[in-house]
Amino acid sequence: MDKAEFEQIVRQYSEPLYWQIRRMVLSHEDANDILQNTFMKAWNRMDDFHGESKISTWLSRIALNESVDFLRHNKRQINAIDDGMSVADTLMADPYFDGSEIEARLQQAIASLPEVQRTVFQLRYYDDMKYSDMSKLLNTSEGALKASYHIAVKKISEFFKSHD
Amino acid sequence: MEEEKYIEELVGKRNPFRVPEGYFEGFTAQLMEQLPEKSKPRAKSVWLRPWFYAAACACVLLVSATVWFSLPEKELQQAPMAVVDQQHPQEQEDAIEEAADYMMLDNYDIYAYMSEN
């Protein structure tokens, strides 16, 4: 694949990939870095892609792996309290977040989930992704994904009920 | 799912995140500028392969001959194939290791060669 062809792929998929990443990592700067890393890795691994899946699935997989790696390396900052500010407080102060307080609290609840539940919740709740597609993307059974989503939803609902 | 409905009614599904103006429009060009040129594929050393085979065969023969001639006389009097069969597996493995050392190959080279085939 030459650069011109790859440029078309970047143009086509950068926005949907960005939003997948951004919902995981919350900050625009981090999402931008991860998006660039995703396409760099895709460029370097293009020869390994033989059409076993849709290219969008392949790119999503790289993006989600990069996001999860990022979260694991920055666990303390993302998941809980950072310098006395909660995730919700940090978002409300972020110029690239124009949600309400309750939307910020939802992000905080999502950020407190383990990575798999967090990923599954984002893909199902925001992207309405079918479990069959999610199964191919995450290489996990549909049953396990449904269970993950169910648990995630319960935890988030309890978060709101306990913080009311 | 009731809990899912509860969250949807409470918060909704609106995307609350924003990006700097012109971000997506400029992203592709910025990325393409940074993209390195594709590194040339590692030239397969096809022309080396016959030499590899020849060298491998020569070394195995050399090591086998060394082992053969160092065997005690009474073992040589038995059928040759029986001698090979009775040869301890560890000695065969040692012979291969010695051949690999002689050719200055490490495991990575051997695995790389095998994966190319």
Structure in words:
- Chain A has 164 residues and is mainly alpha-helical.
- Chain A folds into 2 domains: 1-73, RNA polymerase sigma factor, region 2, helix turn helix motif (Rna Polymerase Sigma Factor, Chain: A, Orthogonal Bundle), CATH 1.10.1740; 113-164, Winged helix-like DNA-binding domain superfamily/Winged helix DNA-binding domain (Arc Repressor Mutant, subunit A, Orthogonal Bundle), CATH 1.10.10.10.
- Chain A is 74% helix and 0% strand.
- Chain A contains 9 helices and no strands.
- In chain A, α7 (115-126) crosses α9.
- Chain A is globular.
- The mean pLDDT of chain A is 90.
- By secondary structure, chain B is mainly alpha-helical.
- Chain B folds into 2 domains: 2-34, no CATH class; 46-116, no CATH class.
- Chain B is 68% helix and 0% strand.
- Chain B contains 7 helices and no strands.
- The longest helix of chain B has 22 residues, at 49-70.
- The model of chain B is unreliable at 79-87 (pLDDT under 50).
- The A-B interface holds A 3, 6-7, 10-11, 14-15, 18-19, 22-23, 26, 28, 32, 35-36, 39-40, 43, 46-47, 91, 95-100, 102-104, 106-107, 125-126, 150, 153-154, 156-157, 160 and B 1, 3-4, 6-7, 10-20, 23-24, 27-28, 31-32, 34-36, 38, 41.
Number of helices, counting only DSSP H or I runs of 4 residues or more of chain A: 9
Cα separation of the termini of chain B: 53 Å
As an assembly, this protein is: heterodimer
Low-confidence runs of at least 5 consecutive residues of chain B: 79-87
> How many extended strands of chain B?
0
What is the CATH third-level topology name of the largest domain in chain A? Rna Polymerase Sigma Factor, Chain: A
Q: Give the helix/strand class of chain B.
A: mainly alpha
State which percent range the strand residues of chain A make up.
under 5%
- Biggest beta-sheet profile of chain B: none
Give the % helix of chain B. Answer: 55-70%
Radius of gyration of chain A: 17 Å
Query: What string gives the helices and strands of chain A in order?
Result: HHHHHHHHH
- Please provide the count of β strands of chain A: 0
Shape field of chain B: elongated
pLDDT averaged over residues of chain B: 71
What is the CATH level 1 assignment of the largest domain in chain A? Mainly Alpha
**Domain count of chain A:** 2
